[in-house]
Design the sequence.
């Protein structure tokens, strides 16, 4: 459904930009086929554009090479621009590789890394080289003695941290890097997952500035989980493996005990080694019982095991049962998929707010990536915009509480509140030492989900990307109940400016409402199926397009690895062979492929979000599910782009930084010490964003074919 980012951080793992992306493929058989097509009076431009929309640039160039028509000349210019873009990216990658190798050598010259900071610096340099390396260069890098020593020393350091119960450092000192460098190493992955799990457990047991551990588990009852399992037994999209579910739950029970065993003054619950030994012995007996069941266990036996664990708790660990229920439930549901989970009473309000993108607050976007709680941007026509607050201001206090070490979630919970109430922020403007207090009255905020490529001086979006070619640009950040309405308004505005072709940017869009996705596809296709949801039991639900005023302009859709759920429905349907309505540019999508339903089955204020169906695109094919494919060792999940453009780490950073500059909304009187806010023109934006640059070139080619 929805993935929320609590920090403005760019996490870049190894994004391989293979030279083969830019390689051109042309066969004798293709040539024969193209000659035959041409003889049937299919235009040269049409044939060439078809090849461009597949990423077959050399073939397209061969097709137009003999034509002297004006359109063929224009198409040759587009192909030259594509070739220039690809060559510049290859050259930039080679240059980056050489620079990163030099940086690594400087670290090598310092000697074998043993100190935690030295190990971290070494890994950062190694990962940076790996990012830009070819397949052969990657192999040579991992065989390097310095790299092997770094790995060995990091594993020893991680073990030291584990022996102290510092799970976060145990992970960040070694396994966060090893998962990136050795993606196929099962042992590293399992250990990394185990450490991450323990770190999450430990964090859940600590008080924060915004909530106590007891608040976090308040209202959790055994009956909630039991009713959840009963509901899932019938409603979940596929048959449940209760043996796996029980095994993973008992594993989590053992991890919980291990976390509690290590002393931590921030955790209120203390257990002795004797208690843990008795607890683990009981857990081992339950595991033996599970393993002895020929053919596995069923739902009733699973619930019996859950109740058995609850009975063992008071005479061993003796911690509040709410904690155990939470961990047992989470581990159980994780075996199904990442999208099926229980929302306990304490989290329901935040969950509903995130689903609707509506909340009561002041209307700002914040981050703490710089170490300080900072206003990234204002939202138009909100209390914040009409106050003395501005972008780049640092929020030092919220209602007198210091924001140092305050998480984003915590800060948001303190800044938001009932409409009509006040919040007082102590702020420090950029370039100033003095602070000042601003009191703002909260109001209902409806976060706009349709954006353009740049803010205008009045704070409104500029949707027209290239006036000369009539190319419009719409970025949908998520699919809420009003996204389709906002998109129609933006398209109407573009049509008044001479819209001829449209780039629809769904990159980093985590999804949202299925109906909204169907409504947006309906704008571009005539009568026919858009998406169908097929549960394990019952009838399929089909969303159909309606024959009405349909947008006919050429269309390119941008996707990447963070385009999920409803984004995949839109991009998949528009690409589908039944319509062939859009060309997809970018990188493979996330691969969700399932539909979730939210119900109040658990009772007592809790909610259950569970996967109830797979969704199928117009021609009937499922979107390949990432979770299922990972289990069988495959990576070809999600929606594949027609024209693949994978971004390197450096390209990603430049793209995000440029987009952030163009997104920010400041006060009209904004005049910070360091000058006015930075805005980037079209040339700068296209240079910073190769995926968008390629989308524009493909769209120009499609416009030639359409005219």
Sequence:
């Amino acid at each position: 459904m929805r993935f929320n980012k609590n920090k403005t951080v760019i996490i870049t793992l190894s994004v391989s930009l293979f030279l083969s992306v830019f390689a051109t493929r042309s066969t004798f058989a293709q040539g024969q086929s193209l000659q035959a097509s041409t003889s049937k009076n299919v235009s040269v431009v049409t044939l060439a554009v078809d090849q461009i929309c597949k990423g077959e640039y050399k073939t397209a160039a061969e097709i137009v090479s003999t034509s002297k028509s004006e359109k063929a000349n224009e198409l040759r210019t587009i192909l030259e621009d594509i070739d220039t873009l690809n060559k510049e990216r290859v050259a930039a990658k080679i240059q980056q590789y050489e620079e990163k190798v030099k940086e690594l050598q400087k670290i090598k010259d310092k000697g074998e890394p043993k100190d935690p900071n030295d190990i971290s610096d070494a890994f950062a340099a190694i990962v940076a080289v790996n990012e830009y390396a070819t397949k052969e260069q990657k192999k040579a890098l991992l065989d390097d003695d310095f790299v092997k020593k770094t790995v060995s020393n990091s594993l020893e350091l991680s073990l030291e941290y584990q022996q102290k119960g510092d799970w976060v450092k145990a992970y960040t000192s070694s396994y966060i890097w090893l998962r990136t460098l050795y993606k196929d190493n099962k042992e590293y992955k399992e250990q990394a997952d185990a450490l991450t799990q323990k770190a999450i457990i430990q964090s859940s047991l600590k008080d924060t500035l915004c909530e106590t551990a007891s608040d976090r588990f308040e209202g959790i009852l055994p009956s909630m989980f039991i009713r959840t399992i009963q509901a899932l037994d019938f409603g979940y999209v596929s048959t449940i493996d209760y043996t796996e579910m029980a095994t993973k739950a008992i594993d989590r029970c053992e991890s919980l005990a291990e976390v509690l065993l290590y002393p931590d003054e921030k955790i209120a619950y203390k257990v002795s080694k004797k208690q843990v030994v008795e607890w683990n012995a009981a857990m081992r007996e339950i595991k033996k019982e599970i393993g002895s069941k020929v053919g596995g266990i069923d739902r009733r036996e699973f619930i019996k095991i859950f109740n058995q664990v609850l009975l063992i708790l008071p005479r061993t660990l003796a911690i509040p049962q709410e904690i155990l229920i939470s961990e047992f439930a989470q581990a159980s549901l994780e075996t199904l998929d990442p999208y099926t989970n229980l929302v306990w009473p304490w989290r329901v309000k935040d969950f509903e707010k995130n689903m609707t993108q509506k909340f009561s607050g002041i209307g700002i976007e914040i981050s703490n990536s710089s170490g300080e709680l900072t206003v990234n941007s204002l939202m138009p026509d909100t209390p914040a915009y009409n106050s003395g607050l501005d972008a780049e201001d640092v929020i030092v206090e919220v209602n007198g509480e210091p924001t140092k070490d305050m998480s984003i979630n915590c800060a948001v919970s303190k800044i938001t509140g009932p409409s009509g109430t006040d919040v007082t922020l102590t702020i420090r403007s950029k370039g100033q030492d003095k602070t000042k207090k601003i009191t703002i009255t909260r109001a209902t905020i409806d976060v706009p989900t349709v954006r353009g490529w740049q803010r205008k001086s009045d704070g409104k979006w500029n949707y027209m990307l290239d006036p000369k070619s009539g190319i419009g640009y719409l970025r949908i950040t998520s699919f809420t109940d009003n996204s389709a309405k906002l998109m129609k308004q933006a398209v109407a505005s573009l049509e008044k400016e001479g819209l001829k072709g449209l780039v629809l940017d769904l990159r980093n869009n985590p999804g949202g409402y299925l109906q909204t996705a169907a409504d947006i596809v309906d704008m571009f296709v005539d009568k026919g199926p858009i998406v169908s949801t097929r549960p394990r039991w019952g009838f399929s639900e089909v969303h159909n397009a309606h024959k009405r005023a349909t947008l006919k302009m050429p269309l390119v859709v941008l996707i990447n690895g963070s385009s999920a759920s409803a984004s995949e429905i839109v991009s998949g349907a528009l690409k589908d062979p039944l319509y062939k309505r859009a060309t997809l540019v970018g990188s493979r999508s996330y691969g969700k492929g399932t539909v979730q339903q939210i119900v109040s089955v658990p009772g007592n204020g809790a909610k259950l979000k569970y996967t109830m169906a797979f969704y199928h695109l117009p021609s009937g094919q499922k979107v390949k599910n990432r979770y299922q494919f990972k289990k069988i060792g495959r990576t070809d999940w999600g929606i594949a782009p027609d024209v693949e453009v994978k971004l390197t780490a450096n390209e990603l950073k430049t793209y995000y930084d440029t987009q952030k500059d163009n997104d920010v909304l400041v006060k009209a009187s904004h005049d910070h010490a360091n000058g006015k806010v930075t805005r980037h023109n079209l040339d700068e934006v296209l240079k910073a964003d190769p995926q968008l640059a390629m989308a524009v070139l493909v769209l120009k080619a499609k416009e030639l074919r359409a005219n």
Notes: The chain has four domains: 110-203, 218-236+241-335, 358-446, 450-526+549-591+624-706.
